[in-house]
Amino acid sequence: MLRxxxxxxHFTESKLSEIEQEIDRRTRxxxxxxxxxxxxxxVDQVTAWGLLAEIGxxxxxxxxxxYLSSWACLCPGSFxxxxxxxxxxxxxxxxxxxxxxxxxxxxxxxTKNNYLSALYRRIAARRGAKRAIMAVAHALLVIAYHMxxxxxxxxxxxxxxxxxxxxxxxxxxxxxxxERLGHKVTLExxxxxx
Length: 194
What we know:
This protein is mainly alpha-helical. The chain has helices at about 1-25, 30-35, 45-55, 65-70, 95-110, 115-125, 130-150, 160-165, 165-180; strands at about 80, 85.
């Protein structure tokens, strides 16, 4: 029985290899776009193939990244009535694209020291892991759109991007947190922060 299972595994792996070689052959004319997408943290060659297959090659069909994320149904829902925010449930949209981006977002959630992982941790702390995954998938789609439209590689903003946006707010928040833990905090500048 083990021999049969092992033979079946070899057969499946050989078929998978054949399919990957065929996809690689057919996407060879677009290898610069695939390589460009692979510069995004968490995006591998298979994810890049899926992105290109689902988005298409005509970038003019989506005037902006907002149109693309709305088409893919990866934009945040906004059901509001009488000034109250009700369900922000997302629609189904393009299931293949959503699955592809969600898998990349899960891979990003396990990494450290990049902008997207910092975005994941920031949102997951407040809203939960699944909502953070969808937010990172949305960010990935927007990044991919701009990279393909402008024909440029991904520029990493860094894990401390959100702290650098408003340094004073981050400082006040950390001081309040330490004071809630029962410490008296005195701040002295040590020099120029990079």
